[in-house]
Amino acid sequence: MTEHELVRELAEKSSSKIVLVVADGLGGLPIEAGGRTELETARTPALDALAARGTCGASVPVLPGITPGSGPGHLALFGYDPLEFRIGRGALEATGIGFELGPDDVAARGNFCTLDAAGNITDRRAGRIPSEESAAVVERLQAVRVPGVETFVRPVKEHRFVVVFRGKGLDGAVADTDPQATGVPPLEPQPLSAAAGRTAEIAAEFVDRARRLLVDEPKANGMVLRGFAAKPRLPGYEELYRLRAAAIAVYPMYKGLARLAGMQLVGHAKTLDEQVDTLAACWQDHDFFFLHFKYTDSTGEDGAFAEKVKRIEELDRVIPRIEALGPDVLIVTGDHSTPSLLKSHSWHPVPTVMAAATCRPDGFEKFSERNCTRGGFGIFPAKHLMLLAMAHALRLGKYGA
Amino acid sequence: MTEHELVRELAEKSSSKIVLVVADGLGGLPIEAGGRTELETARTPALDALAARGTCGASVPVLPGITPGSGPGHLALFGYDPLEFRIGRGALEATGIGFELGPDDVAARGNFCTLDAAGNITDRRAGRIPSEESAAVVERLQAVRVPGVETFVRPVKEHRFVVVFRGKGLDGAVADTDPQATGVPPLEPQPLSAAAGRTAEIAAEFVDRARRLLVDEPKANGMVLRGFAAKPRLPGYEELYRLRAAAIAVYPMYKGLARLAGMQLVGHAKTLDEQVDTLAACWQDHDFFFLHFKYTDSTGEDGAFAEKVKRIEELDRVIPRIEALGPDVLIVTGDHSTPSLLKSHSWHPVPTVMAAATCRPDGFEKFSERNCTRGGFGIFPAKHLMLLAMAHALRLGKYGA
User: Fold this and answer.
1) Are A57 and A372 spatial neighbours (Cβ–Cβ below 8 Å)?
2) Residue A262 carries which DSSP code?
3) ipTM rounded to 2 decimals
């Protein structure tokens, strides 16, 4: 019996409410030997109070030693095994710019390139054409029509864009067309399985028509397509957990990931305070609330230890407002660690605290990496967090008599 | 996606260096209630310093409660699931005496026995014939030729020896010929699968020719064969981890296990100091170094608590020399526990310490079983140690975007 089969069997309706606050990249490292991490340095009275009355743990997003991207990191927190449910690159890129993929869609990442008169690539990134110029070329590509499918082209940044093909029976198993070299033409889209034959033909037709349209574009007269992928098939929160789930996120990537799990996007908040306003405003309409805070990750990526500390303190200050709403289960965690020391995502376990009337206290008074490692949840796979959340919300029945 | 698929996808080349020191049977138990283990008794300033600046954990070689032999214990440390990758008894015995198995080999363990005039077994162990007499009989067996294959016969100890059959299309699925009783003849080698028919015939032919040759050997005129097995197919370190791995071991068994994982055997060290000399001498030529120290196990097997303590202290004294080489990741652990109290291998989790600039400190100042259990790696499957080593050496890319 898989974990999802189990939770489908045991999930029960309830009026209890669960709040999952994800401080992106929360976990850290000391910047100097013998020192403290960002979280251990921050003054966090509200988070410490949660630790004191709740249970701590350290979550492993994928496997020990494996550093996750935002996709696998969030899928795990949402209760999906990130090694079983993979989001293809094209689907993640579309998700990241807020394009809502449907069940009949195949998305690919596009790069503009420049081609010489013979059709050979002269620059694989079209001189990193500025975003505004690129957007104008993307605009022209809207006119390309391929019989039998709808196509959507959306700008990303500089030479990068997304193409989405929409039609029955499409399949993401199509090879990249980037030859990874100059002086040769882009590759033809080749099917990697029998089911993807038609998709490869459609992509080839799109590229051909686009090339004829862009023949007079001096800076971007060609393209390569990579990471063809359909929308991953995730069972949704309503189906899996019987939860009406709301997502309160600022950035398109996290909104997209929440949509993949069937959460409803709520509000248009830009700041953390506005996010909590949104939470309060939609409190009656949902059972589960995912609130995403980006800046603990971006400061870590920048290697800005002191800034990351401040962002953690900023988060700490809104915790009492969330508690005032009376959630039955309140979780604060991250999707992965982003130590300022490494200026990147890392594999280190992620500090996690849960406060609920049903928590077994573990004797820690401060929310910190080293306490979490020894906490009542121990070091646990992130994909199990939702089982713990459901249990503490008294939303899971007994397994077996 | 399996762990090996994942690591193949994510492993990156780097100039970082990883040292894995395996103190065989390191873990222990207090000899009296309320007392300390061997490791907790030993004076280990260097290992304690590693614990203070690094991360501790307790590894589980196979599963909780499962006591491993040397084979599964090392396979797990090397990153192979010991329940998935099994080394057949014949292959392990050949490996243990330093016989390098090839891809076309099937090895079996042999026992000399005595047969009466009717061909029935009178002693299944040939009176535990002394090793030097047994070796002379093995020498005679070198003359046995079976058409279509090469055969190798090597002495082990007393009545035990190893036979290796080398030829295309051989298969290890052949039943033991030991009837586990006297007064009956040895069994015929029977194939356990269709693919092993020819191998069984070859083994039968070998036994028949050997019997005719040994008819005048009063102390060992017969044999039984057990544990037929081909070389296990382990993906090697270069292929899996992109590591050029060196093994610095004294005993043939551990050299053999390292060879199965594709490590290169380096040097001819006999003492621990010579092993560290070898490590220093080959430092530039490899990325990964497995250094095996036997005597923490053998003293445990002897039930010699104080001797095991001394051996741990002997190991501690060479740690600064290893650190002086500047490894990016230095790990000290064992392949299993061998508590003096039990005079045998045991299932208890194995104390593990890793020191690296990328370690998250866990607040422990002493390398001991009880600290390791609560350490930053927690209690973890030994097969994940290599993922952690690779991550801390910054040799693994990000999983998913």
Assistant:
1) yes
2) T
3) 0.90
Map out the domains of chain B with their CATH numbers.
Answer: 3-85+236-392 (3.40.720.10), 91-230 (3.30.70)
Cα of B396 to nearest chain A Cα, Å: 7
Mean pLDDT of chain B: 96
Contact A379 B380 (CB under 8 A): yes
Contact assignment for B361 to A92 by CB distance below 8 Å? no
- Whether residue B263 contacts residue B100, with contact meaning beta carbons closer than 8 Å, is answered with no
Chain A nearest-CA residue for B51: A34
DSSP state of A183: S
Model confidence pLDDT, tens digit, residues B150-177? 999 999 989 999 999 999 999 999 999 9
Q: Which residues of chain A lie closer than 8 angstroms to B380, CB-CB?
A: 64, 379
- Tokens encoding A253: 């990537």
Tell me which chain A residues have a C-beta less than 8 angstroms from the C-beta of B399. 62, 66-69, 72, 82
> Of A64, A344, A374, which has the smallest distance from its Cβ to B380's Cβ?
A64
Are the beta carbons of A32 and A22 closer than 8 angstroms? Answer: no
- Count interface pairs A-B at CB distance under 8 A: 91
How far, in Å, are A61, B119, B120, B228 from residue B183 at the CA level? 61, 9, 5, 24
**Model confidence pLDDT, tens digit, residues B179-238:** 999 999 999 999 999 999 999 999 999 999 999 999 999 899 999 999 999 999 899 999
> Distance, in angstroms, between B52 CA and closest chain A CA?
8
Nearest CA in chain A to B360: A29
The 3-state DSSP class for residue A390 equals helix
Which residues, in sequence order, are CB contacts of B125 under 8 Å at separation 6+? B111, B112, B113, B158, B159
Q: Note whether B396 contacts A65, CB cutoff 8 Å.
A: yes
